[in-house]
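Example 5.3 — Probable membrane transporter protein
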Amino acid sequence: MPLLLTSVFIGAILQRVSGIGFAMVVAPFTIIAIGPAQGVVLVQMCGVASAIIVLTQVVRDVNWKIYLVLLPASAVGIILGTVFVSRFPGAEAEIISALVMLLMLAASVTAGYLKEYPRNAGTLTAAGGLAGAMTVLAGVGGVALTSLKEATRWDQRSFVATLQPYLITLSTGTVIARLAAAPDAWPALSATVWGGIVAVMVVGMLFGAQLSRWMKARHAAQLTLALSLIGALAALADGISKL
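Solution (predicted structure tokens):
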């Protein structure tokens, strides 16, 4: 599983440097490696672990009010996304996941060029619902929050901090929903691979901590977008080839 372990390692580094990016980098390559259902579940499990690590360092800056406003719509999005994705077989589900990734990446890039929107209950509810659905479909719901950040000019420090408990909750809900709908979505990996995933995550986080001393978060975010785009296009091509 070189592709899987490499993507987890790079995702952990970028998550530690910029506070975001783990699922964006890991999801497309994981979906290629083990399929869309198991891939999404694995990415969310790893995402919970990485978010917990980051949260321990930024918990003082979490905006808990925004976190709570996001949750109800996110739960609805998870439920609707689970119902939708359960209707499609492997290849079609992989194509849908890849297209969702590309759409979310485009939204995150263009959101900063739009006029500034208020960060109120309406925009938070819309972003939360979209994030819930996109997490189930492609494992990249955090990108919806990145678009919200850009569109509402949300302060980077507060955004990264608030994103961590939200991703922990969102990813946990996604894993539960996916497994409830399809128990075979549990990643069928050997103990060796599970151990390797844990190892590369830890090493990636440690390396990212050192890298963050000289690499700017903005540059890490740009690298995240580039790798995510490559991965999404590769996943799309892989899904089409399986039709």
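Remark. The chain has ten helices and no strands.
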